[in-house]
Design brief:
Glutaredoxin, 7-stranded mixed sheet, globular, Glutathione-dependent peroxiredoxin, EC 1.11.1.27, thioredoxin peroxidase activity, Thioredoxin-like_sf
Length: 160
């Protein structure tokens, strides 16, 4: 059975690809989130319907309000490569969102939040959002299958 990361747990030391306008770089998740208050949300796939029409756009629209609650970073992660995450962020005007690629799914697996989607794309991330304070999980909202309520920007803003 997969063990899902728990409240109070530290973010694992797993490599991610940080996507910026300047390019890409490999960063360790625990180091990236250390000393910061972070809202991290995960989507099953870039350019997919709910993710593109609602999930990422909600955080784009509410970014200033979320950051006004003391959040240092809003990050979006998906089991996609860095080139896809960069193109998706640009298409969505997500300048205030840190786009993270978990290309091989190592971070998603370390959190215990992977799901198998078969022909849709293989191993992907479940849809979730979490609040991280100095590398420690303070809130974790994982969506039930085919739902979009607890991980949306409005729900996280209310939890801050």
């Amino acid at each position: 059975m997969i063990q899902v990361i728990q409240l109070g747990s530290s973010i694992p030391a797993v490599a991610l690809t940080l996507v910026t306008k300047e390019g890409q770089e490999t960063v360790m998740a625990d180091t990236l989130f250390a000393g910061k208050k972070v809202v991290l949300f995960a989507v099953p796939g870039a350019f997919t319907p709910t993710c593109s029409a609602h999930h990422l756009p909600g955080f784009v629209v509410l970014a200033d309000e979320i950051k006004a609650k003391g959040v240092d970073m809003i990050a979006c992660i998906s089991v996609n490569d860095g080139f896809v995450m960069r193109a998706w962020g640009e298409q969505q005007n997500a300048e205030e969102i840190t786009m993270l690629a978990d290309g091989g799914g190592a971070f998603t697996k370390a959190l215990g939040l992977e799901m198998e989607t078969g022909d849709f794309g293989g191993m992907r991330s479940q849809r979730y959002a979490m609040i991280i304070n100095d590398g420690v999980v303070k809130q974790l909202n994982v969506e039930a299958p085919k739902q979009f309520e607890v991980s949306k920007a409005e729900s996280i803003l209310a939890a801050l």
